[in-house]
Design brief:
Elements (H helix, E strand, L loop, with lengths): L14 H27 L4 H47 L1 H14 L4 H25 L9 H25 L5 H24 L3 H26 L4
Keywords: Membrane, Transmembrane, Transmembrane helix
Pfam family, one: VIT1
Protein name: VIT family
Length: 232
């Protein structure tokens, strides 16, 4: 029988950065492409499209980074407050906290006597960590990391948004609207497949969600560009 411990790699370990990265890439691709499609539909110049594209990349990446950092920081602050409160309760009401932990294990299927033994053993090992995990639901894997989320989101936004900007250089002006639309759909399909693979999710539903919402966004901005766009 092997002596080594079998340590499994779980896909949920990627949640902290994967969610921010997928959101950033999806937002970068859809928002930049939709904006460029709308501008192109309004018959704007090549220079205007390039300026719009690079402005969208810069502003969008900074906005995504700031938004993720603030949002995840708020989550981290809440977690710290919960841990501080739990530390206070463990110090001032240890018996009540032990009973609370015992009840949690009973609800999970342990017999009362075994639940109490487990609660005592884990409390002696690390009371705060045990209550954080089993009472509050905070683990090392799930704990918020604001800087990680901000960086992942900003870089992913740029990676997604740069695709339609490159399309401005590749396609002629008379077919730019349709060419950007096709290029963006291809990009959305790739994003859907990659995100599904990284997260261990079914590929078809994940890809369909990404493509559907992206197409709807481009259709809406293209219609607006046609209705209100005028050459100046």
């Amino acid at each position: 029988m092997p002596n080594s411990i079998h340590a499994e790699k779980h896909l949920s370990d990627r949640n902290n950065w994967l969610r921010a990265a997928v959101l950033g890439a999806n937002d970068g691709l859809i928002s930049t492409a939709s904006l460029l499609v709308g501008i192109a539909a309004a018959n704007q110049s090549h220079e205007s499209l390039l300026l719009t594209g690079f402005a969208s990349l810069t502003a969008g990446a900074l906005s995504m980074a700031a938004g993720e950092y603030i949002s995840v920081s708020s989550q981290a602050d809440t977690e710290k407050a919960d841990l501080k409160k739990e530390q206070y309760e463990l110090h001032h009401n240890p018996e009540r906290e032990l009973l609370e932990l015992t009840r949690i294990y009973e609800k999970r299927g342990l017999e009362p006597e075994l639940a109490q033994q487990v609660a005592k053993a884990l409390t002696e090992h690390n009371a705060l960590e045990t209550h954080a995990r089993d009472e509050i639901g905070i683990t090392e894997v799930s704990q918020a990391n604001p800087l990680q989320a901000a960086i992942a989101s900003a870089l992913a936004f740029i990676a997604g948004g740069v695709l339609p900007v490159i399309g401005i250089f590749l396609f002629p002006a008379d077919t730019l609207v349709y060419s950007l639309a096709v290029l963006t759909v291809v990009g959305l399909m790739i994003l859907g497949v990659v995100s599904a693979r990284l997260g261990g999710a079914p590929v078809v539903p994940a890809t369909a969600r990404v493509v559907t919402w992206g197409v709807l966004a481009m259709i809406a901005t293209s219609i607006i560009g046609n209705l209100f766009g005028v050459s100046v």
